[in-house]
Amino acid sequence: MKKLLSFTCLAVLGMTSINASAAIVLDRTRAVYPGGAKSISLNIKNESQKLPYLAQAWMEDAQGQKISSPFVVLPPVQRVDANQKSIVRIASVPAIDALPKDRESIYYFNLREIPPKSEKSNVMQIAVQSKIKLFYRPEAIIPERGAVWQDQVTITKQGTTLKVNNPTPYYITYVGLAHPKGKEKTAIKGFSAFMVSPKSEMSATIPEALPDQFIISYVNDYGGYMDITYQCSANVCRAVKSE
């Protein structure tokens, strides 16, 4: 969307140049806020070698509305000098006690860079914005380190539709499908990522019908992609758990 906007502006403004390169970057692609914590810290960096930037941060709810409860961002705006690092804190307020204690809740952290005013004329500057998921994980469901719960999910094949049942208290995001090929795999092109809410069931459309064994990839707490092999019987598929 931003690339389309850039080219449109360029066509209209003729000789006007556009600066759309990102400077303020975040150290992760998702965050988990553990129950009982007063705050968590996210690291940011200004990758510009010459210019200072402002970093503006805020929280949104699941509907994309800006919020100041049950989480606040500190500081909401800060200056980050060229090639320097800084920290953004996400802190909870008392309203967090009203969130469900038996499952995760989802929010979104936003980070927008604000460039310094250009000294050149006819320059359009675009503020690049990052948006990541933040999962609030109540104390009662914080797992042991290294625990895997994604293999508890049951998947039912219905032609080019997958019916995904997630009995766990966690959100699970799926990012890929593949055919097993010995110790390797062949990715299925055209797969669209989707997220399953805690203790819920949903249907997802896939590019092609799957065989009785397939690999599905999910995103772990650290933003890494992990594979699980599924074996099907009468179209009901369960994870092949490692011994």
From TrEMBL:
Keywords: Chaperone, Fimbrium biogenesis, Immunoglobulin domain, Periplasm, Signal. Residues 164-226 form the Pili assembly chaperone C-terminal domain. Its main location: periplasm. Residues 24-141 form the Pili assembly chaperone N-terminal domain. Residues 1-22 form the signal peptide. Transmembrane segments: none annotated. It comes from Aeromonas popoffii. Pfam families: PapD_C, PapD_N. Coiled coil: none annotated. It is found in: Periplasm. This is Molecular chaperone. Belongs to the periplasmic pilus chaperone family.
